[in-house]
Design brief:
The complex is a heterodimer of chains A (406) and B (118). Chain A is of the alpha+beta class. Chain A contains 12 helices and 15 strands. Chain A has helices at residues 5-31, 40-99, 108-141, 160-163, 172-175, 191-200, 204-212, 254-266, 268-271, 277-285, 304-312, 389-395, and strands spanning 165-167, 183-184, 214-217, 222-229, 232-238, 240-242, 247-248, 290-293, 317-321, 329-337, 343-351, 355-361, 367-370, 385-387, 396-401. Chain A starts with a helix and ends in a 5-residue tail after the last strand. Chain B is mostly helical and 118 residues long. Chain B has 3 helices and 4 strands. In chain B, helix 1 runs antiparallel to helix 3 (45-105). Chain B is rod-shaped. Classes of the chains: A alpha+beta (406), B mainly alpha (118). Chains A and B meet through helix 1, helix 2 and helix 3 of A and strand 2, helix 1, helix 2 and helix 3 of B.
């Protein structure tokens, strides 16, 4: 296997030493007494000094983090190589037994097992290198010093949030909740995806579909997720969740796994750039989806009777607002059940463009929606709330349907 | 010297400028040098490239911090030089005024900058 843990540790030490040197400079700069200076120029000078100290501070911290990443990788590589060498030793002994006269065929099953284990160890080793590379890029992408206009790569650094990930628990499928109200979107612009997942989580069939398309791989320590490209299944291996991404009840769950797989399918830039539920449902379900449009401010109202009919036929719906208000938010009077179960009016903020899972449509045309921002969010507090038919016509311009088997 | 509300201490300014020059030199001294490179060291090309990019970015940032510290030191010295020239000019003005007052008290007057007996 290629790689040299000793050389990596030497490089890590050199990077660490550079950071340690910056730490001394940091202390010296902070010791310069300019606090007694007064006047406009003194204020400007103090701001400049603070900026330099902050930059040096960052320069002091990041090499240390880079060194830690490399040292961890060196340890991981050494462990993996030792394990691989142990398997190879066993395999060489088994081959010797096989080609001996008379051949010892009893070693064959072990040889097959070892061959498989060798493949797994190689895979895990490579994943470790990829995670270490992501962590290194995240370090620089998160640079806020503003001192250097970093120009590599030509398209700019990938956003730090695309690279910062956390491990996924191996027990998610055992402990997972499929309650749509537990979903919380996080910092990624994928409301369309999470609202679509929430819509599917409203039925047992939807839960089963989401569960069936995820498989835990104990050997590789991650999940295989089946998505669909033009109806054809595509499998993605996922062993990390986005650090600032979707959570359920505060932990990485089913939604996090799908979000990570969608990142592989779409790339992070497309994932976080918004999207349409009608284009998302087919990727999750492999089935055709429908899309309905409504002109905001137009003469025609939504045909909410047709939406009710779709829900009755087993379709799941996601409704999306258009560009609303002067800053993407309007205050509306909505309804939701109070403590005694009766509907009570409440003022909530509706955001747009934003996707909401549809939980029901009333005969009067009012629509129950759920915000993927989750419980306790600052806009509507979470939970399903009822948008009047008038407000639904005013602010929602798109409804995506999962298709009839959703 | 006191001018308006600004109080300057030349020794303090020079010491601060020296402090920034020293910081710049110290930063240059601990700039990350060449480190091991290549897939044969890091195991995989993707990680080897990441290490190179990160080392390059750390160096750029490091150099920018050093240059910035050096510029602040230079700026302080330029200010110091400017203040000293103003100080000298004001002192010269005060001395000239003093001479004029002395001359007047001795019975001379100043016409177009030239003292004449009266």
């Amino acid at each position: 296997m290629s790689g040299d843990p000793g050389a990596i540790r030497t490089a890590a030490a050199a990077i660490q030493a550079s950071g340690d040197g910056a730490a001394v400079v940091h202390t010296n700069l902070r010791a310069l007494d300019v606090e007694s200076w007064s006047g406009w120029a003194a204020n400007a000078f103090r701001r400049r000094r603070t900026a330099i100290i902050d930059a040096v501070d960052e320069q002091e911290g990041d090499p240390g983090k880079a060194a830690t990443i490399l040292n961890d990788w060196a340890d991981q590589m050494a462990d993996a190589d030792a394990a691989i060498e142990a398997v190879r030793t066993r395999m060489r002994a088994a081959w010797d037994a096989l080609i001996a006269l008379p051949p010892d065929l009893s070693v064959l099953p072990g040889l097959v097992r070892d061959q498989r284990e060798l493949g797994t160890l190689r895979f895990v080793r490579e994943r470790g290198a990829i995670h270490a590379a992501d962590a290194l890029y995240a370090l620089i992408a998160a640079d806020t010093s503003g001192l250097v206009g970093l120009t590599w790569p030509p398209d700019g650094w990938p956003p730090a949030q695309s690279l910062q990930t956390v491990p996924l628990s191996p027990t998610i499928l055992d402990t997972a909740t499929f309650d749509p109200l537990t979903v919380n979107q996080g910092q990624i612009g994928d409301c369309y995806l999470l609202a679509s997942l929430m819509a599917l989580m409203q039925t047992d069939e939807g839960d089963q579909l989401l569960r069936d398309n995820i498989t835990w791989d104990p050997e590789l320590g991650g999940y295989w997720v089946t998505l669909y490209d033009d109806g054809d299944p595509v499998r993605y291996f996922v062993d990390r969740a986005q650090a600032g991404g979707a959570r359920q009840d505060g932990t990485a769950g089913i939604a996090s796994i799908y979000e990570a797989a969608m990142k592989e399918h779409l790339t992070f830039a497309d994932l976080t750039n918004g999207g349409w539920p009608a284009e998302t449902f087919p990727i999750i379900t492999g089935r055709d989806a429908d899309q309905l449009w409504h002109e905001l401010g137009g003469d025609e109202a939504w045909d909410t009777g047709a939406l009710r009919e779709r829900l009755a036929n087993g379709e799941q719906l996601v409704a999306s607002t258009g560009s609303i208000g002067t800053d993407g938010v309007v205050e509306i009077t909505a309804s939701r059940p109070g403590p005694d179960g009766t509907l009570q009016t409440q003022t909530v903020d509706l955001h747009g463009p934003h996707s909401y899972a549809v939980a029901g449509v009333e005969p009067d045309g009012s629509v129950w929606v759920m915000n993927p921002w989750g419980a306790g969010n600052g806009a509507d507090g979470g939970g399903a709330f009822l948008v009047s038919a008038a407000d639904f016509n005013l602010y929602f311009n798109n409804v995506g349907s999962s298709g009839s088997d959703g | 010297m006191t001018t308006g509300t600004i109080q300057l201490d030349y020794a303090d300014m020079q010491a601060t400028a020296d402090g920034f020059h020293t910081a710049a030199a110290d930063l240059q001294a601990c700039l990350l040098g060449p480190i091991a490179s290549g897939a044969d060291v890091y195991g995989y090309p993707v990680l080897a490239e990441a290490v190179e990019r990160v080392a390059e970015a750390l160096r750029d940032r490091h150099t920018a911090a050093a240059e910035s510290a050096e510029r602040v030191g230079g700026l302080l010295e330029a200010c110091l030089w400017g203040y000293q020239r103003v100080d000298e000019a004001v002192t010269a003005l005060l001395e000239a005024r003093l001479r004029a007052i002395e001359a007047l008290s001795k019975g001379v007057r100043i016409v177009n900058g030239t003292m004449r007996p009266v």
